[in-house]
Amino acid sequence: MKHIDIRITGKVQGVSFRATTKAVADQMGVRGIVRNEKDGSVYIEAEGDDVSLEVFLEWCHEGSDRSKIENVDVVPGELKNYQNFEVLKK
Fold first, then answer.
1. Domain range for residue 59?
2. Could you read off the pLDDT of 35-66 as tens digits, one per residue?
3. How far is CA 46 from CA 7, 49, in A?
4. What is the pLDDT of the chain when averaged over all its residues?
5. Would residue 89 count as lying in a domain?
6. Given the DSSP bridges, would you call strands 85-88 and 31-36 parallel, antiparallel or unpaired?
7. Judging by DSSP bridges, how do beta strands 42-48 and 68-76 pair with one another?
């Protein structure tokens, strides 16, 4: 089990990005959180096995239908043992 922190910039707010991220994470068995940031980016904490996280990251580079991804920053983090994947409101 691994934990990664992901920050995605581009057109990722106001385009159902968080809801789509949750649906994709649930489908892949990835657990964690997603939230909008004040600077217009989206922040994700994701936990799962190597394969699930790799496929999830590939999706993060593609994004949802209406989003336009400019940059995806990924850093390893400390495991928090999330039980599910949640969309956090501000």
1. 2-80
2. 999 999 999 999 999 999 999 999 999 999 99
3. 11, 10
4. 97
5. no
6. parallel
7. unpaired
